[in-house]
Amino acid sequence: MEPAERLDNNHELTLQDLPYIIRWREDRCTRCGQCTAVCPVKAIEADVFSQRLVSSESNTPVPSVARSVIHVVKQVRDIDRYCTGCGTCALVCPTVAIEPEYNPHNRFLTFKNKKGEPFTRGGRRNDPSTSTLDKLKFTRISMLTDPALDAGRHEFHIRTLLGRILPAEKLPLEAGNSTLTVKKDAFIPPVREIYPIMIGSMSIGALSPPMWEGLAMGVAYLNEVENMPVVMCSGEGGMPPSLLRSRFLKYFILQIASGYFGWDEIIHALPHMKEDPAGIEIKYGQGAKPGDGGLLMSYKVLKLIAGIRGVPMYIDLASPPTHQTKYSIEEAVAKMIQSMSMAWGFRVPVYPKISGTRTAQAVLNNLARNPYASALYIDGEDGGTGAAYNVSMDKMGHPIASNLRDCYLDLVKQGKQNELPLIAAGGVGKSGNLAANTAALIMLGASAVAIGKYIMQAAAGCFGNEYNRCNLCNTGRCPRGITTQDPKLYRRLDPDKVAERVVDVFKSTDIELRKIFAPMGRSTQLPIGMSDGLSASEEEIARRLNINFAC
After folding, report:
1. Is residue 388 domain-resident?
2. Contact, 317 vs 280, CB < 8 A?
3. Tens of pLDDT along 145-196?
4. Are residues 356 and 240 part of one domain?
5. Is residue 166 located within the same domain as residue 86?
6. Largest CA distance in the chain
């Protein structure tokens, strides 16, 4: 018997295997070519087909055959060019002739690993139903016994403190005749008054120049015009030298991570700084990839980024998982925090950032004994990232709600709950409920929260969502121009528009926070740890967080 004929395309994927299927309307399409031109992954391409048409036009039904050439837009089935569902094609189509449609029956995870390399992506995990924060409600509404405040007319002061807050009995003060004097050689920890929502660490390099510039302009406007002391973290990689030497530095938190990228520029700028930064963040972990280091792909390391970071162009910039000069968290915390505090004359709050983990309490207890530690930043498993392995984002890490709650209750047992601030991050505003999520975390024990992916979506219209839509941050092909260093792509982004949206987001969130805090009678002091005002809709969550259960 002759062997069965092999099909040349037998090993190709079908469209049903892919996460998104392109729906193209031939009758509407004008063949303008805009969709194929803007697709960031080249998942669609123009093609030509020969069409055979059989017809009979005479009285005698003698069929005739005619052939015509038709132009089509075809979806590519190559796994390296699969459609990510970003919808850029639909955005530019003048006749609404094309759009990606999510395919819930896809088998993409079966085919995602190519050439022995695990699948990497940007964005964050995909299942919005896992958000504990969205299952919490505020059920302590004051009526007669504790008069509520009018959220629309009452004066509010929604602020928090970044820095170690010493109790009255520990302040190195001496009382004299109607005077208070500081004891000689006494150390008073530096403290900053900030807005309780900060923009988390997203570096120049991970973000495009217009995106980072837009965020920075928005932060400056909020501080100087709206009188809202919002701060923004630089992320690893340093900052432009002009900004380091400007008066706007006081609105930024400088991050030092295990790669030490960009720190040469910061050290050289130290003698010329007109203002101290708002804080120094020492990064040990990220919520989206706990136990793993940072990564900036080579195609993002162009001339501007290489110059700021002090590295050659076009090389992968990988940060090790830990600071390599330290062998333990105890030594790292002691040496890094003290050395950074000394660099700024003990005038700037210094704190570590760790990923959500069951060992967070061990780090916290170590910090509680360190007089120079100003806070602890915990990044939960829902935190976003520019680049991470899929398995890290979906299967590793600790949810922020329970991790934060454990740490806060630990501080309560030590009587230090008002001394060492906790900063919570990871999935805040994941479903769009920024104010509600922020208030819930504050009432679970956080002094402040940090946002990253939310502000990218709200300020620049990031296409990414929780169903693996887009998530091209790691490839440098961001169709919105947010996470790319390609001028052809980031010219699509207007930094002025980004700044306007940043201001809109914070001003509207401030109103919603007032609506939540007013019924609790809180106007000048955040309800940090006020867990009796919270209830959970699921009994297991209520029991785990030690709050009320309401159904």
Report:
1. yes
2. no
3. 566 788 888 889 999 999 999 988 888 888 888 888 888 888 889 999 999 9
4. yes
5. no
6. 121
Instruction: Please indicate, yes or no, whether residues 86 and 163 belong to a single structural domain of this protein.
Output: no
Contact by Cβ (8 Å): 74, 45: yes
H/E segment holding residue 210? helix 209-224
Map tokens 């807005």 to a residue.
195
Q: How distant, in Å, are the alpha carbons of 138, 196, 533, 537 from that of 548?
A: 10, 24, 8, 9
Residue whose token pair is 């120079």? 372
Strand pairing report for 173-175 and 160-162 = unpaired
For residue 92 the two structure tokens come to: 């530019």
**Burial class of residue 141, CB neighbours in 10 A (0-12, 13-18, 19+):** exposed
Pair 37, 163 in one domain: no
Buried b (16+ CB within 10 A) or exposed e, 335-372: ebbbebbeebebebbbbbbbbbbeebeebbebbbebeb
Identify whether residues 163 and 113 lie together within a single domain.
no
Q: Which amino acid is at 375?
A: A
Other CB atoms within 10 A of residue 548 CB:
15
Distance (Å) of CA 535 to CA 241, 334, 547: 48, 38, 6
Measured between alpha carbons, how far is residue 132 from residues 248, 314, 441 in Å?
36, 41, 11
d(CA 321, CA 504): 36
How many independent structural domains does the chain possess?
Answer: 2
380-410 per-position pLDDT tens digit: 999 888 888 888 888 899 999 999 999 999 9
Looking at the structure, tell me whether residues 164 and 105 fall in a common domain.
no
CATH number, residue 28: 3.30.70
Tell me how far apart the terminal alpha carbons of the chain are, to the nearest angstrom. Answer: 70
Report the 10 Å Cβ neighbour count for 329.
18
Q: What DSSP line would sit under 127-163, residue for residue?
A: -GGG-SGGGEEE-----TTTTPP-TTTS-----EEES
Alpha-carbon dihedral sign for residues 380, 381, 387, 389: positive
Give dist(CA 211, CA 206) in Å, integer: 10
